[in-house]
C-alpha cells in the first residue's frame, strides 16, 4: 500500500491568494521515512513587498524576509529538487488543497528561469495526494466547510501550533490523511494512479458545478496545476 512508502508533506505561505501571480515566502517539507521524520523549513526573500494582509496570515513581514530570508532562486531550486527526487520514485507528496501550492511553485520556478516540476518529472506531476479532495470524494454530501481546521475537528485530530504556519499545517495535513485512511481504508489499498484519478474527478465535478453557476472557476480538467 502506498501509505507504507516514504511520504512527503508539503505546504507554502505566500504573498497572496493568486497562485499564478503571488510569490513564495516560506515552505515546509516533512519527510516521513522508515528511519524517522525529517523536517525542512525555508524562509525566502520573495523579491517583492509582502502585503499586510498576507503578513496577518503567516506573520512574516517584508523586513523579516529581506533580513533573514534566503535568495528566492536558491529556495525554489532546493524545494523543487527535493520534491522531484521523491516523486520520481513514485512516492507521494501530500498537500492540503494541493493545487494552490503546486500551481504557485510551478509559476515561481518558471518566473525565475528554473526547471518546473513537470519538466523534472518528464510530464505529469505525480503522485500528489490531497486530503481535501479525498475527503470530498468519500464523504461527498457531508455538510459544512472543509478547511484544514474543519477536517482536523471532523476527524478529531490532535494538532500542535497555529494554522497558517507552514510546518504546523503540514503536520496537521499528515495527521488528517492518517485519520482519513483509517476511516476509509479503501483509499490506502488503491494504487496511486487511482488515487490521483479520484482527486482529478472530484476537482472536475466541483469546478464544473461552479462554472454552471457562472462563477468562472477555471478549467475543470486542469489539476494539480490549475492556472
TrEMBL record:
MF terms (GO), sorted A to Z: 3'-5'-DNA exonuclease activity; metal ion binding; nucleic acid binding
Keywords: Exonuclease, Hydrolase, Magnesium, Metal-binding, Nuclease
Gene Ontology biological process terms from the UniProt entry: DNA catabolic process
Sequence similarity: Belongs to the exonuclease superfamily. TREX family.
CDD domains found in the cross-reference section: DEDDh
PANTHER family in the record: LD40940P, THREE PRIME REPAIR EXONUCLEASE 1, 2
InterPro entries referenced in this protein's UniProt entry, alphabetically: Ribonucl_H, RNaseH-like_sf, RNaseH_sf, TREX1/2
Known cofactor(s): Mg(2+)
Domain of life of the organism encoding this protein: Bacteria
Cellular component terms (Gene Ontology): cytoplasm
Species: Ancrocorticia populi
Protein name: DNA polymerase III subunit epsilon
Alphabetical list of SMART domains matching this protein: EXOIII
